[in-house]
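hey can u check if this looks right to u? its 343 residues, i copy pasted from the old doc so theres a chance i mangled smth
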Amino acid sequence: MTTAPRPYRIDCLQYANWSDKIFRQMREGGVDAVHVTIAYHETFRETVLNMEQWNRWFEQYPQLIFQGHTAADVRRARDSGRTAIFFGFQNPSPMEDDIGLVEILHTLGARFMQLSYNNQSLLATGCYEAEDPGITRMGRQVIKEMNRVGLVVDMSHSSERSTLDAIEISQRPIAITHANPAFWHPALRNKSDDVLRALSQSGGMLGFSVYPHHLKDKSACTLDSFCQMIARTAELMGPEHIGIGTDLCQDQPDSIVEWMRVGRWSKDIDYGEGSAAAAGFPEMPDWFKDNRDFGNIEAGLHAVGLSAGEVAAVMGENWMRFFERSFGPAQAGTTSGEAVAAE
């Protein structure tokens, strides 16, 4: 009698200060796949340099990590006791102002791209802007090209109208890889019920963040509160449209926050949702410090009443299904409705 493979554990966003310690912790935590940020404000050439660094890590630690391109790589990672690393951008800056680079970046391994970070981009509006004109003319064309090649539209840092526009325009389901519901904590980057409903109705995915600025009670947030929020969101969206996207920034120096928030667009310090008195990274909640703590979330979901199947779905099965239908070229004639129906 063969034993059924264990459920997947997939984290759809991390931006850690990568090291062999963290790669080993991924394995201790049984994490099969991680979507890693390799660009915030980088140009195309700077992004390629970041890819070069990852290639060195893949060469140095082949027993721990390898680059993922397809959902099949997640299965290969689980079967071989490793973690598949998928590249993504938190801004469209790597494609600069050239739509032709979308396909090039996908060929190089990118699988997710946010249409905006906190500010207005050439494609969409960020969540910190006072006005939200929605997806731009170029944004519509870039979404079409992303759909064609299999680069996932990510609206984690985008504003309300831009996110709703992207859901409507995209012919393939989009993702919000790392954010939480605004009904639980009204951070600028957390999402309204309208966005969450539209996301689920279109077949999209929400990844829950454990970054303290997005949590109710911030660093003091309890595991029970976090898991009760997930259970309530499952009622709103359906349990098949939710997963984990921790936004873990482990071991990063506080200077990295300045790069994330300021980049090259301002000479002033942008404190984001923090304060001048606490401009660095906030302390993580005690139940999630690093990749070894995914078991705490899993246990917490069981404790709030989710079934074993629902817990497995949230911890990775839903992302796995999303990866399977999202990372390759679009099939000719496929519509958004057909993509949803195919789930």
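The domain at 10-341 is CATH 3.20.20.140 (TIM Barrel).
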